[in-house]
Design brief:
The structure is a single chain. The protein has 251 residues and is mostly beta strands. Among the domains are: 52 residues, no CATH class; 110 residues, Immunoglobulin-like (Sandwich), CATH 2.60.40. The strands form three sheets. A five-stranded mixed sheet has the order 5-12-11-8-7. The N and C termini lie far apart (63 Å). InterPro entries: Ig_CFAP47 (IPR058952).
Length: 251
């Protein structure tokens, strides 16, 4: 859309509405351009020279006499569609045991054929950790799709609790060109040391555009009983004592 003839007083703020309604899971780009000129049509006496700031040289409109006729502000907008949040995937394991589970996730509406990453200025770009992978999915037409994935936690406390107990690796991927559905199969390892219930979110981004979030619930149930302690009475109203050792698993 185009807005014109907006009059701004000194120090006044201007709000510019931006509506994003993506029709497909792909990257959308646009530019908001704002041009400011004096209401009376006069120029600013400031002259742009070769020694002026580079950004200033690029963002001003110079009149014939060298004075400044208008000032431009250019704001790039990068839109990344996000799929509706999916149902929670529950990973359940008994405390002090190790569970290895395959989790199958469906990415619906994937657009093929784009391999470039979004611009660094994209505010919707997920900040992936060094451990994140970029596996490739290739269909019969040699269109390559790349994905980034990361396990995000609700707080630093949950991250500290789960990070050493949970591992994820993408082991299989399938690309259905007709339905535009990509199936990603993850191998999830969960090795809890004590009973707990924590939540995390697996965030998957396709470099062709699109963001999918899958809630994960990690549940550790009560561990097996270590041992049964039998105490034999030595007589009525007399104390019986039994000793046993406990070993700490940490420092």
């Amino acid at each position: 859309f185009h807005l014109a003839g907006i009059r701004l007083a000194p120090k006044e703020k201007l709000e510019i509405p931006v509506l994003f309604m993506p029709a497909e899971m792909k990257i959308y780009k646009a530019v908001v351009v704002i041009l400011v000129m004096r209401e009376n049509g006069e120029n600013w006496p400031y002259e742009v020279t070769g020694e002026s700031d580079t950004d200033l040289n690029r963002n001003v409109i110079v009149a014939e006499n060298g004075e400044t006729q208008g000032i431009l502000w250019i704001y790039p907008i990068n839109g990344t569609p996000e799929a509706p949040q999916q149902k929670s995937v529950v990973v359940r394991c008994q405390a002090r045991q190790r569970l290895e589970q395959r989790v199958e996730l469906l990415l619906i509406g994937v657009m093929p054929g784009a391999t470039d990453l979004p611009d660094a200025g994209n505010s919707a770009m997920v900040d992936m950790e060094e451990s994140s992978s970029t596996p490739e999915v290739t269909d019969g037409s040699s269109a390559t799709l790349e994905f980034l994935y990361e396990l995000q936690y609700q707080s630093d406390e949950i991250r500290y609790q789960l990070e050493s107990l949970v591992g994820m690796e993408l082991v299989e991927k399938e690309w259905d060109t007709e339905s535009r559905i990509v199936t990603l199969i993850f191998n999830v390892v969960f090795a809890p040391s004590k009973p707990m219930r924590s939540e995390a979110t697996l965030v998957i981004q396709c470099t062709a555009g699109g963001l999918w979030k899958f809630p994960l619930v990690f549940i550790a149930t009560e561990p097996e009983v270590d041992d049964v302690i039998n105490i034999e009475a030595v007589g009525l109203n007399k104390e019986s004592i039994v000793g046993f050792k406990l070993t700490s698993q940490t420092r």
